[in-house]
């Protein structure tokens, strides 16, 4: 499917311990996206979203706000070709 894309996202700010991963998973699943989200040891959250370009773009935009308790400082995103993620999960 040529309209599929992959976004690799790093989110910094107050994004751990505020249900950011769970909200990311639920939102991505609601959009039918594949990929994963995880906390990093430096306090950031890392995520990969694969799916239709428009939904991936919406998800990247969503990351700027994230969960209600989050305070996002920065979102860095790199686009690439999909690698065949299947389903959306929280990595631990």
From TrEMBL:
Acylphosphatase-like domain mapped to chain residues: 6-92
TM stretches of this protein: none
Active-site residues, record numbering mapped to chain: 21, 39
Enzyme class: hydrolase
Superkingdom of origin organism: Archaea
Keywords: Hydrolase
Pfam family of the protein (one): Acylphosphatase
Family matches, as InterPro entries: Acylphosphatase, Acylphosphatase-like_dom, Acylphosphatase-like_dom_sf, Acylphosphatase_CS
Record EC number: 3.6.1.7
Catalytic activity, as annotated: an acyl phosphate + H2O = a carboxylate + phosphate + H(+)
Entry's Gene Ontology molecular function annotations: acylphosphatase activity
Similarity comment: Belongs to the acylphosphatase family.
PANTHER family (alphabetical): ACYLPHOSPHATASE
Stated name of the protein: acylphosphatase
Organism: Haladaptatus paucihalophilus DX253
Lineage: Archaea, Methanobacteriati, Methanobacteriota, Stenosarchaea group, Halobacteria
């Amino acid at each position: 499917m040529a309209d599929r894309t992959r976004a690799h996202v790093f989110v910094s700010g107050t994004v751990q311990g505020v249900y950011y991963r769970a909200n990311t998973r639920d939102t991505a699943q609601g959009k039918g996206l594949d990929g994963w989200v995880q906390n990093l040891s430096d306090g950031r959250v890392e995520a990969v979203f694969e799916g239709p370009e428009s939904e991936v773009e919406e998800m990247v935009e969503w990351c700027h706000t994230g969960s209600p308790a989050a305070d996002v400082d920065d979102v860095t995103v790199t686009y690439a070709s999909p690698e065949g993620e299947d389903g959306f999960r929280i990595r631990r």
